[in-house]
Amino acid sequence: MTKSFKVRLNYDIIKEQGGEGMQLRYHMVTIEDLMPAGHFLRKLEAALDLSFVYEETAQMYSRKHGRPPIDPVVLVKYLLVGFLYGIPSERQIEQRIQTDVALRWYLGLDLLERVPDHSTISQLRRRKPGFRKVFRRLFEEVVRQCMERGLVSGRLAATDSTHVKASASRESEYLAEVPEEPGVYWERLDSYEEEGLEELACRTGRRRKKRTKQIKRDKRRTHKRVSSTDPEAGHMNRPGKPRGQHYLSHQTVDTDNGIIIGLTVTPGDVYDSAPYLEQIEHIHKNVIPLQAAAADAAYDFPLAHRVLEEHGIDFFVRPQPVHDRTAAELKRDAFSYDETQDVYLCPNGKHLKLHSLRRSASGLYWVYLADKQDCRSCPLRKKCLREKDKRGARKLEHSYFTPARQRHLARWDDADYQEALKMRQIWCEGTFAAQKWRHNLIRILRRGFEAAEDHCLLSAVVLNLKRMIRAAL
Predict the structure, then answer these.
(1) In terms of residue numbers, what domain contains 67?
(2) Is residue 314 part of a domain?
(3) Is the separation of the CB atoms in 332 and 326 below 8 Å?
(4) pLDDT digit string (tens) for 291-304?
(5) Could you tell me the pTM of the whole model?
(6) 62 lies in some domain
(7) Residues 138-174: b if buried by 16+ CB within 10 A, e if exposed
(8) Angle between helices 449-472 and 72-84 (to 10 degrees)
(9) 233 inside domain
(10) Residue 173's closest CA among 223, 222, 226?
(11) How many independent structural domains does the chain possess?
């Protein structure tokens, strides 16, 4: 790092013994002399190469017109030190740099040089919105450097999400009608549906015609709590979590050294499972091949088991508790599945045979139906069917992807399965705790999805940098 240092003259006023005379003492000091040799920022400067920032921002600055700009690397460092030392606002970052010699040294500012005004960052976002792509590139560069140092292996990637308070109060919320969108995996299920229909034809000898039109999207409308202050945030209402407007930071951590290798930001009302497959596949294809993935019960959805199995990724997930919402007295547990005959056996000894493949907005389900004649004369009819049941026969469903889920969960009692869940808890929850305690992941002061994503990326970057430098010691 090349810096131009000025000599600062300190004047010490000393009273001479036994007299009124005054004496001035001159000190020859540079900022390099004042910077401790083993300071963390020296290690950070040596470890992190920010030259790519000039490449990313080259098109944003004119070489012929206007005043000379503030060095974009200085602006990136300006924000980095805020997250590194848990300084919540840019105004406070400016004040801290003004008086902290170590921060001045890291930014390349002389002792008497003016610190960039905090409003410079605000104007940068307003006038050069493309600058924010630097933060995603910074996150990727740090992950790449961690990989080069052997800190990321892909042996086990653990995923979880944490809430980050949005800059919006509950008083700003109002109920808005929004159209219900199809499931996040809508297009992905198309290919599986065709595959399932072929299998249905083999197992039953019948299948409907190939779909030529997209399934009509559900046009029902639902109510959603929206903030007039930050409409892009989402109202979070989860057991044990604070209610209100939040964003969610979905992070995937390599459990070798706790390096965050994937990050997605969503509004607070999005299910954890929604961005999961896209994030894992991106890491597997573009970052590092994954051998195994671990997650808590929120990620135990059937499609995940099938997709990860196809990628050759072992899936260690805590099973999601089953809630039987059947209105009839006889619940699903009263029926046993005979895999050899591919039928369900009811408490009266009758068979429910495979009938069709049902497609919903978020899944595929095998549909098994009992014979109407069997149900009409069954002594258990009142316990098994509701009085207003129009079908006149009991129906059961299970996911098209159940076999893949069963293969994964069959290893539940294995030591490596339990160890993977333990590592997920240690690294995911420990990482979130460190970010919230020291690196500004409690709340976001700015508004909008882009601000939330930049905020979460910078918090992840500084934690990765700390772990990378600590591992090198």
Answers:
(1) 8-127
(2) no
(3) yes
(4) 999 999 999 999 99
(5) 0.89
(6) yes
(7) bbbbbbebbbeeebbbbebbbbbbbbbbbbbeeebbe
(8) 80
(9) no
(10) 226
(11) 1
